[in-house]
């Protein structure tokens, strides 16, 4: 940046935040935050040629609102080059906001606050799942300039219907994912300078003579934006605004509007303008339906080939809110390209990883999801979006991100029961499986295209210190207890029928009629109650007194001390 003369104006110019000329677009209905955000971002690049919110409202028709993959596809479809990429979590937000804004592209932030999560200032309490636009950043005070399409709607009354500042460290914990022009241009080691905004933005803004027209600080902004950016950054006196949730910029002067208002146009011209807008909306909607609605979305990856973390999460998201029913009968459902995968936990992760078939969580390495040619084990603190959490022979879910600094709570995708869930879990929570092992798909890549760390030499993954399952038949429902004592409190039930157990242990003898008795207790997963517990071997259908064998006649091993 050119050196400014030693004046107050020069010092302020070097501290100006970086802002894009974007007007607020309200969402007319619930769940239309995605289309409204897309309209704001595209209008910053295309001006009046940007599609209307109505033309893009098809994105909000799915249950729960706009799917991130649809929003990315629409943004890239309308631009000369597909610059928008998907990022998960806030760990690169500061760098990516600067990179995208400096190139002249706003960002779409997806805010997700669980019901018990910390409330964002100015926003209603959780649960919150919402899209907003980021149109500027302040590198000095580390804050973001936000346009929220829901401003003014019930529950969002505290938000202004114009850009407002919010500290990045306040926004970051709520960021589930975002879309931005985050990659450097091809052949360039650094982001390019912001390009010239669309022609419709031609405000009468006086730029400091000390600032070069080639610097980001001197790019044209809507009326008042340059003054307010400089003013909010430089105030240090008694009239300075306190640092808070958001800072409201002054309204534009009515004497110098950015565009002619409707009231300023003759009646006939207003009618013609309305008709033209309606015709444009219909045409844009028809183009979108023709191009996006009649064919399945193309996958960025091929079966059993490298796949980015973003695409893995997109594929997992594609089964959420689809009304799929969990089953153990081998029934299937299609992925976004129509390939069938089993509707269970391991089939779901196989689909997300784009494997050639539905794998299983099993000790048989020929079909296992954790076979060495498919995935490799990693540490808990190495988990990243798209990795798997495995409980041997029982369950698997797809990790998305940690939700606290202690790494005790996390977001994950799970299809262990109906419906497919995307929710927060507690590591080793009391109502969940204990001691998950983390696995990483061998061909997963980071979202920037770089491969993840290479997989270790292919060896069978280490089994946890837990015996294999032994299948047994029980003639009646057996009470589950926390220990091997008859007097221990009942904590659950093992139903009659075919069940599996892990191991046996001697304890109090359970006696029945006709002299039947058994002193062994079996460690198993209970069908109801508190997860795992001890059930007396007295309930085994076969064998005699004080025997504990599986259905094949093999003696069930003793549990480790």
Automatic annotation (TrEMBL):
UniProt-recorded name of the protein: Peptidase C39-like domain-containing protein
Biased composition (Low complexity): 202-220
Domain Peptidase C39-like: 21-150
InterPro entries: Peptidase_C39-like
Entry keywords, A to Z: Membrane, Transmembrane, Transmembrane helix
Region (Disordered): 188-260, 445-465
Segments crossing the lipid bilayer: 271-290
Gene3D superfamilies named in the record: endopeptidase domain like (from Nostoc punctiforme)
Biased composition (Basic and acidic residues): 229-242
Organism the protein comes from: Streptomyces coryli
């Amino acid at each position: 940046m050119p050196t400014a003369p030693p004046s107050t104006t020069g010092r302020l110019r070097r501290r100006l935040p970086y802002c894009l000329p974007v007007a607020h677009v309200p969402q007319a209905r619930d769940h239309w935050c995605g289309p409204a955000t897309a309209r704001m971002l595209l209008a910053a690049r295309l001006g009046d040629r940007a599609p209307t919110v109505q033309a893009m409202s098809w994105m909000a028709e799915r249950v729960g609102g706009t799917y991130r993959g649809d929003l990315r596809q629409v943004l890239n479809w309308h631009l000369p080059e597909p610059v928008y990429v998907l990022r998960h979590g806030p760990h690169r937000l500061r760098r990516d906001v600067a990179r995208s804004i400096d190139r002249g592209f706003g960002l779409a932030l997806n805010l997700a606050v669980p019901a018990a999560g910390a409330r964002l200032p100015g926003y209603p309490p959780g649960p919150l799942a919402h899209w907003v636009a980021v149109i500027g950043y302040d590198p000095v005070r580390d804050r973001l300039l936000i346009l929220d399409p829901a401003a003014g709607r019930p529950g969002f009354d505290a938000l202004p219907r114009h850009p407002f500042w919010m500290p990045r460290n306040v926004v970051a914990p709520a960021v589930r994912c975002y879309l931005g022009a985050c990659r450097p241009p091809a052949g360039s080691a650094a982001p390019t300078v912001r390009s010239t905004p669309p022609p419709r933005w031609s405000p009468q803004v006086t730029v400091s003579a000390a600032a070069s027209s080639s610097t980001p600080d001197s790019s044209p902004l809507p009326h008042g934006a340059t003054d307010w950016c400089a003013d909010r950054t430089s105030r240090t006196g008694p009239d300075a605004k306190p640092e808070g949730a958001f800072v409201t910029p002054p309204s534009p002067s009515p004497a110098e509007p950015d565009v002619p208002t409707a009231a300023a146009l003759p009646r006939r011209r207003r009618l013609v303008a309305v008709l033209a807008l309606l015709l444009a909306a219909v045409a844009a909607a028809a183009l979108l339906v023709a191009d996006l609605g009649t064919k399945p979305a193309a996958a960025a990856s091929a079966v059993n080939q490298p796949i980015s973390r973003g695409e893995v999460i997109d594929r997992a998201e594609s089964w959420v809110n689809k009304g799929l029913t969990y089953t153990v009968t081998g029934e299937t459902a299609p992925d976004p390209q129509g390939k069938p995968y089993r509707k269970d936990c391991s089939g779901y992760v196989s689909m997300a990883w784009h494997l050639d078939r539905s794998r299983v969580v099993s000790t048989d390495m020929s079909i296992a999801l954790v076979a060495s040619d498919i995935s490799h084990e990693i540490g808990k603190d190495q988990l990243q979006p798209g990795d798997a959490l495995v409980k041997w022979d029982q369950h698997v879910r797809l990790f998305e991100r940690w939700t606290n600094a202690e790494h005790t709570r996390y977001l994950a995708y799970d299809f262990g029961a109906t419906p497919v869930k995307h929710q927060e879990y507690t590591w080793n929570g009391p109502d969940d499986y204990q001691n998950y092992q983390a696995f990483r798909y061998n061909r997963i890549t980071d979202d920037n295209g770089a491969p993840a760390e290479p997989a270790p030499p292919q060896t069978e993954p280490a089994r946890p210190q837990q015996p294999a399952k032994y299948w047994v038949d029980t003639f009646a429902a057996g009470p589950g207890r926390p220990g091997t004592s008859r007097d221990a409190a009942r904590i659950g039930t093992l139903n009659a029928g075919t069940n599996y157990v892990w191991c046996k242990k001697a304890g109090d003898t359970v006696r029945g009629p006709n002299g039947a008795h058994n002193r062994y207790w079996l460690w198993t997963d209970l069908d109801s109650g508190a997860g795992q517990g001890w059930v007396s071997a007295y309930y085994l259908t076969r064998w005699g007194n004080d025997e504990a064998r599986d259905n094949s006649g093999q003696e069930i091993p003793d549990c480790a001390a």
